[in-house]
């Protein structure tokens, strides 16, 4: 499963498991503080905040060219642009600072971080491994924009970026120019655009009005792709390797920087050092 729908809202499984780990850490810290020490709640939130800011700053610096072209994107964290290396460094530095400034926090904060880390490690890592090994490019037939039957497995042999979208979805519309540019720049990758539940006439009119030209537009009338991959939100973009195995996914709007980062995982020679 890639995402979970909560009424009108959707949450990726990664973010859900991160929230669960934070709740476990808060609870463990509170229990530990009752046996001696100080409740580490505020310190935990500080560590999470600084780690997130550090991860975002690191990501922006790695892809500074893309962000300088559209500076507003720097503060739009919905693109999922975070670099775990700089985030981890910022989190560790903040933790050490809290240990130094408030000795009474050391035991409860240490226990809280340990419990949160164990929760994350025993849920997110196995889930990612299971998803990558069980969710392959399906033997699924969809209709093309021209009315021809297309089997998704026909695209095996090259990396695939599979974008699930709809014309009525604002973030889908905003990311279309970014995906169009990537499709034109990366002929070594199959970009597929699976429209959810709309007809070819509606799609043609929408793309013409938007001024976007896309190859491989497919019609997914029954959300077959979403059911196969466990995706319950739009837009969802799936990154599949040349062997047909799911390697990464993104829930929500992609920026030029976050798409470049995701492509780097399919094409390691293009990933910034």
Automatic annotation (TrEMBL):
Chief place of localization: other
Residue ranges crossing the lipid bilayer per the database entry: 12-31, 43-61, 81-99, 111-130
InterPro entries: Lgt, Redoxin, Thioredoxin-like_sf, Thioredoxin_CS, Thioredoxin_domain, Thioredoxin_ResA/DsbE_sf
The organism's place on the tree of life at top rank: Bacteria
GO biological process, one term: cytochrome complex assembly
Gene Ontology MF terms: disulfide oxidoreductase activity; isomerase activity; phosphatidylglycerol-prolipoprotein diacylglyceryl transferase activity
GO cellular component term, pick one: plasma membrane
Residue ranges constituting the Thioredoxin domain according to the UniProt record: 131-268
Cell compartments where the protein resides: Cell envelope
UniProtKB keywords: Cytochrome c-type biogenesis, Disulfide bond, Isomerase, Membrane, Redox-active center, Transmembrane, Transmembrane helix
PANTHER family per record: THIOL:DISULFIDE INTERCHANGE PROTEIN DSBE
Name by which UniProt lists this protein: Thiol-disulfide isomerase or thioredoxin
Species the sequence originates in: Marinobacterium stanieri
């Amino acid at each position: 499963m890639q995402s979970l729908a909560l009424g009108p809202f959707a949450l990726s499984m990664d973010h859900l498991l991160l929230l669960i780990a934070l709740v476990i850490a808060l609870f463990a810290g509170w229990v530990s503080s009752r046996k001696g020490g100080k409740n580490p709640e505020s310190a935990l939130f500080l560590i999470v905040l600084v780690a997130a800011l550090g991860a975002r700053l690191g990501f922006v610096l790695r892809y500074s060219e893309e962000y300088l072209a559209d500076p507003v994107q720097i503060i739009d964290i919905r693109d999922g642009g975070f670099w775990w290396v700089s985030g981890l460094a910022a989190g560790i530095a903040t933790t050490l600072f809290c240990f130094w400034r408030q000795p009474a926090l050391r035991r409860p904060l240490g226990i809280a971080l340990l419990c949160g880390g164990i929760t994350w490690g025993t849920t997110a890592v196995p889930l990612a491994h299971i998803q990558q090994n069980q969710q392959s490019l399906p033997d699924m037939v969809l209709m093309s924009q021209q009315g021809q039957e297309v089997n998704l497995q026909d695209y095996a042999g090259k990396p695939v970026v599979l974008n699930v979208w709809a014309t009525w979805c604002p973030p889908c519309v905003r990311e279309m120019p970014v995906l169009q540019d990537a499709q034109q720049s990366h002929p070594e990758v199959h970009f597929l655009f699976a429209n959810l539940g709309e007809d070819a006439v509606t799609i043609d009119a929408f793309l013409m009005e938007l001024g976007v030209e896309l190859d491989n537009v497919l019609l997914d009338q029954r959300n077959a792709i979403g059911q196969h991959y466990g995706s319950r939100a739009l837009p969802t973009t799936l990154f599949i390797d040349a062997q047909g195995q799911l390697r990464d996914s993104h829930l929500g709007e992609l920026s030029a920087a976050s798409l470049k980062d995701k492509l780097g995982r399919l094409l390691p020679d293009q990933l910034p050092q």
